[in-house]
Amino acid sequence: MNINGYTRTCGLIGNPVEHTMSPVIHNTLAEATGENLVYVPFHVPEGHVEEAVKGAYALNLLGLNVTVPYKSDVIPYLQELDPLAEKIGAVNTLVRTEGGFKGYNTDMPGLYRAMVSDGVAIENEEVLILGAGGVARAVVILLAEKKAAGVTILNRTVERAQKIADEVNALMGKEFVKVLSLAEYDRLPADRKYLAVQATSVGMYPHVEDVVIEDERFYDRIHTGYDLIFNPLETRFMKLVQTHGGRAFCGYKMLLYQGIIAYELWTGKAVEDVLAERVYGEMLKAMGK
User: Fold this and answer.
1) Which of 113, 105, 130 is nearest to 195 (CA)?
2) Is the pTM here over 0.85, yes or no?
3) Average pLDDT, the chain
4) Which of 71, 87, 102, 253 is catalytic?
5) How does pLDDT run across 157-172, given as a tens digit for each residue?
6) Residue 147 gets which letter from DSSP?
7) What pLDDT score was predicted for residue 1?
8) What confidence score (pLDDT) does residue 106 get?
9) What would the pLDDT profile of 167-207 be if each residue is shown by its tens digit?
10) What is the maximum alpha-carbon separation in the chain?
11) Conformation bin of residue 248: beta by default, left when phi > 0, alpha when psi is -120 to 50
12) Does residue 93 contact residue 65 with C-beta atoms inside 8 Å?
């Protein structure tokens, strides 16, 4: 592209950012759509989030993505919060507005678009969530918004999972979320098959042989498994789901679509499926796949 005085800048703030795929996503999109825009990563040291957000606005950046560990830390320095981001309590996209940045969460809408792309339904599904961290909480909120029939969180620490359940059940006004320890999975109805979302970091490279639940009988209960990890592209969780007759997907398309939604927010341009597939191919090439 021809960088000139009209070129707009977007970027990523986080720590670390050196191995991010986001420049591949956004620079490919900018080239394909003819947008005079360049995307770069910014490594922000601990304790400098406020300066980074205010500095980005002062430098006329069009928008930012935010990655770990700053997805909640940026919130006090924003002009406005999108309702979904406020509900989730985490922001990964900043959009320039009059007087400051508005914060969005495109991770969960990105997960939903990835699931739609993969032919995975949520509405009326009974869903299992492995894990009870911030990602799991966000997924539960997404499932509630997309009208899943119910959610069961399986986690080593029941108290942590129960906190999420209490919060979301109060929000829903009914018992939408139930909780079991990992060892209690056999209390699930034996004749029911589930959509399962693996929302922990277990199995991430380099610990590729790790899995949250080792007992292979558990995987007989899953018709579709979605692992939010994307490195490796096929986790042991996914392999176990497939071995036991289910479909399995990784989180790489979630990464794709959270970026696409951010790009749409920054530019106002809709990204069609054909272009999304092209960008996905560029991401795979960048990973050497």
Assistant:
1) 130
2) yes
3) 96
4) 71
5) 999 999 999 999 998 8
6) T
7) 73
8) 98
9) 999 988 999 999 999 999 999 998 899 999 999 999 999 99
10) 63
11) beta
12) yes
Mean pLDDT of the region 28-50:
98
The closest of 128, 144, 125 to 186, measured between CA atoms, is: 128
Cα angle 50-134-218, degrees, rounded to a multiple of 5? 160
Tokens of 33: 């759509």
Q: Is 71 a catalytic residue?
A: yes
Cβ burial of 169 (10 Å; 0-12, 13-18, 19+) is middle
8-state DSSP, 247: E
Produce one character per residue of 57-71: b if its CB has 16 or more CB atoms within 10 Å, e if not.
beeebbbbbbbeebb
pLDDT of 289 reads 77
Specify the DSSP class assigned to residue 153.
E
Bridge partner residues of 14 (DSSP)? 43
**Six-digit token string for 276:** 């999304």
Instruction: Taking each helix axis as running N to C, give the angle between helix 134-145 and helix 158-172, from 0 to 180 degrees, rounded to the nearest 10.
Output: 30
Rg (alpha carbons) of the chain, rounded to whole number: 19
Please check whether residue 10 is in contact with residue 266, taking contact to mean a CB–CB distance below 8 angstroms. yes
Residue 146 in tokens: 């997309």
